[in-house]
Structure formats: structure tokens, C-alpha cells
Amino acid sequence: MWQHLTDAVGEQQALFDREIQAWIDRYTRGGGTIFCGKGCFNCCTLAVNCTFPEALRVSLSLSSLQAERVRDHAARLMDRMHEVADLKSYLRIHRQEIGSCPFLDEGGSCGIYGERPFSCRALISTRENYWCGLDFSTLSSEEKRDFVESLDREVVSFPLHYVAETQDRGQVLEKGVAEEMTRRFGLSLYGDLPYLVHLEREHRLSSIIPLGYEITMSFLDQNSLLNPFLVIPDR
After folding, report:
1. How far is CA 32 from the centre of its chain?
2. SS3 state at 163
3. In whole angstroms, how far apart are CA 203 and each of 40, 97, 189, 224, 225?
4. Sequence-separated (6 or more) residues with CB below 8 Å from residue 100
5. CA neighbor of 17 nearest in space, from 175, 124, 131
6. pTM of the prediction?
7. Contacts of 168-172 spanning 24+ positions with Cβ under 8 A
8. Along the 235 residues of the chain, how does pLDDT read in single tens digits?
9. Strands lying side by side in the sheet with 190-192
């Protein structure tokens, strides 16, 4: 039932990887520098959102240890749900209290690298990884000004240091997956990657979604699973 959609996601991810590498090659030939690399994991303290089909692919590839870490991560999210008033508070709580992505291995490398979602693939840094883990609210006005002035505005998603073109492309691909999910099942689902994986591993959400919007919403509500970490557009 989901195979065609998840296979299509995998094909699009592979295509996206090739597009990103082509972009990086052009940028570096022109004198630019990209600072992403294996073991560079400060961006993995950020909240990672994705579509449900992407999370479903991840859920099928986990080891028992990774599954345990996902359960722990989801529990911490749920414990702090009452503290989430808006996106800003969610991002702060995620980075400062929830902790890094549960898919990081002991060496700081991505344990689901081949299955990571579009949003992870799209995040390409034009500055040292120090900046990817920094809380910008701790900077002085002068430090913030110096950072902003150092950015290549023709390339980045200003005022951040991540490549705009790859992020825009990733969002287009996410939208396409969401639209195809809606076409097939009458709803789309987007949210926190580990939480979506948790919903599949612990509640087999993929078996509920094909039953339709009302039944899916009722299932999530009755099991106290609806929360700010999920986005389910109204039909």
C-alpha cells in the first residue's frame, strides 16, 4: 500500500543528492567553500521535520538500539509538550533540553544517512560547523553584525548561512510527497522526524492512515498523540 510512495521518495532523494553535489561542485569551482562533512553534527541539534513517507522509510531501517533511542527521544518531547507555545519555544526546547537527534551514532555520524529526509539533505553550510550549533541570542550586536556581513547573500538563505537553493528545492520535494500522500489517502502528515518514526514503530500509524482522515484524527486524539510536533492540514 505504501511501497510505491516510499520507493518514489527514495528515488527523489537520490536525485536530490546528485543535484546537491552538482551545486556544490559549481560553487567550489567558483571559489566558495562548503563546511559540511562526516562527523560534523551541530546541525543535528536542530529540530528535523519531514513528511510521513520519509519517516516511514527511516522506521523500516532501524536497529533495536536506534528504536530504543527514538522511544526515549519521543518521551522527552511529550514530557515538554506543555512548554511549547510557538515555533520559537519549540526550537529552543528542542536544542537546549530534548537533545541531539537520536539517530546520531557514538562517533557523531548520521546512523540513517542513506534514509535521511529532504530537510537534512538540503541543509548545506557555507560557514564553519561552530555556527550551526550556536545560539544566536547569546551574541552581542557587534558579533551578529559581523556574522551577517560575512555572508554570501547571493547564495545563503539570509540571514542564516545555509544554502538557499538547496533548501528551496528540498521544500518543493517535500510538498510533492505531501500532495501525493493526500491524493492517495485523503490527508498528509508532517512533523518532527523522531516523533513520526515513533508513531510508526509504536502505533503502526501507516495501517491507520489508509482508513481516512476522520479515523486517523480520532485514533491520534484518543491515544493522546496529537500535539504541536505534528501538522495535519484540514481537508
Report:
1. 26
2. strand
3. 33, 25, 15, 12, 10
4. 41, 44, 45
5. 124
6. 0.93
7. 169/16, 169/19, 169/122, 170/16, 170/118, 170/119, 170/121, 170/122, 171/118, 171/122
8. 899 999 999 999 999 999 999 999 999 999 999 999 887 888 888 889 999 999 999 999 999 999 999 999 999 888 887 777 777 777 777 777 888 899 998 888 999 999 999 999 999 999 998 898 888 888 899 999 999 999 999 999 999 999 999 999 999 999 999 999 999 999 999 999 999 999 999 999 999 999 999 999 999 999 999 887 888 997 7
9. 49-51, 190-192, 230-231
Instruction: At 21, list the grid cell.
Output: 553535489
CA torsion 139-96-168-188 (nearest 10°) is -150
Residues 124, 167: Cα–Cα separation, whole Å: 8
In three-state secondary structure terms, 223 is: coil
- Rounded Cα distance between 40 and 31, Å, is 22
Closest CA to 166 of 43, 21, 14: 21
As to burial, measured by CB atoms within 10 angstroms (0-12 exposed, 13-18 middle, 19+ buried), residue 19 is middle
